[in-house]
Amino acid sequence: MNKGINKSRLFLASCVALIVTSMTFAIRAGILGDLSTEFGLTDSQLGWVNSMAFYGFPIAMLIGGAIYNQVGPKILMWVAFISHLLGLILTMTAGGFWGLIISTFFIGFANGSVEAACNPLIADMYSKDQTSMLNKFHVWFPGGIVIGSLLTYFLVPMGVSWQLLIATMLIPTVIYGIMILGQEFPKAENIVGDTKTNLGGILTPLFLFIALCMTVTATTEFGATQWVDRILGNAGAHPMILLAMTAGLMATGRFFAGPLVHRFNSAGVLFISAIVSCIGLYLLSTVTGPMVYVAAAVFALGICYFWPTMIGYTAENIPKSGAFGLSLVGGAGMLGAGLWNPIIGGWIDKGRAAAQAAGVEGDAADLIAGQTTLQNLAIFPAILIVAFGALYFMRKKIMKKAAEEKAELAKL
């Protein structure tokens, strides 16, 4: 690693950029009701607005992953910074559905650019401890959700507008812009930086399997957390406190991920996570009152390691895929979540309509709609139990092949 590179500063700047990314998820989750009221939007329409963040994300990761070997992470970080500024300002000035669609897409593009730059940057800087350091980096996704959730919880009762809540994200955006200003970045020194070789790693059954699983893990996580206000707003627990508590547990778990990964292997961590998240979603679909917090805690422990461990698994077991592979895996996750968001919104609308047709009205109808939606979402981690179970029992064969690939790459 070049001596002129300040790894600690770049890692910290990456974490602050990820805080902005996650604050966009938390604050948007907390203002969906305001957007529905102010602009007269249905839950299905809100689903389309939400989905733009998930569509912008994979597009940025696809482009960023494809050009990472040529431009390096520095350019991608500046693209993220500019897109964050543009997306946040356009959101605050949006006049309706289409304004929200466009501005949310830019925010999603910014978020994807952060991941496209920072995941391979960290894997490159910390090549001997990739999964653990990626988990520590991704501590700040739930960390930012805690910040955004608490801001929403405390500021909304004070009469603060949703536009001002969006504006709070400009502060960490400016901070990470200042932190990367004038810094030297590494350029694929400890990851495969040849696009042709990357494509050889990507066009393999294991990579395609992981990318497909990533769409399911992301939908499991974001399908519930992004809709927390609409799904659990009438379950007897404050949705923003639920979101903050869930995120806090996720951040804590990710910070101490190293020993767990070393003990169970990344495939084992994913297998256990699928089981626990399935149990968590089932509990959330059946309980009300204070027990919702208990169920949310179980769910948090389940989804805690999904995203960073999937990225780390790819870096460690499919080394030929390089930065391009890491970006495509992350992009697949957000694309999957984006595709399911309008469907989830439709589940809520249909669940409410069915409850009203049965003579249930008001908050009770919303509760039934939310619980029905959670039952549908529980199907996703149930699928993952089978998928990651197979991955775990094949781990020795996969690790042996990865070691052979790394030895082959070391000779080049």
Summarize the structure.
This protein is mainly α and 412 residues long.
CA-CA gap between termini: 18 Å
What is the CATH domain class?
Mainly Alpha
Backbone CA Rg: 20 Å
Give the name of the CATH architecture.
Up-down Bundle
- How many DSSP H or I helices? 18
Class based on secondary structure composition and strand pairing: mainly alpha
* The CATH H-level homologous superfamily: MFS general substrate transporter like domains
In this structure, how is the largest beta sheet organized? none
Strand content: under 5%
- Helix and strand element order: HHHHHHHHHHHHHHHHHH
* Number of β-strand runs: 0
Spans where pLDDT lies below 50 across 5 or more residues: none
**Secondary structure: helix percent:** over 70%
How would you describe the shape? globular
Tally of individual domains: 1
Determine the mean pLDDT: 88
| CATH third-tier fold name | Growth Hormone, Chain: A
Task: Give structural notes.
The structure is a single chain. With 412 residues, the chain is mostly helical. It has helices at residues 7-39, 43-92, 97-125, 130-137, 140-155, 162-167, 170-180, 195-202, 205-225, 228-232, 239-255, 257-284, 291-303, 306-317, 322-357, 362-377, 379-393, 395-411. It has one domain (7-183, 193-411): Growth Hormone, Chain: A (Up-down Bundle). Helix content is 83%, strand content 0%. Helix 3 packs antiparallel against helix 15 and helix 12 (257-284) packs across helix 13. The chain is globular, with a radius of gyration of 20 Å.
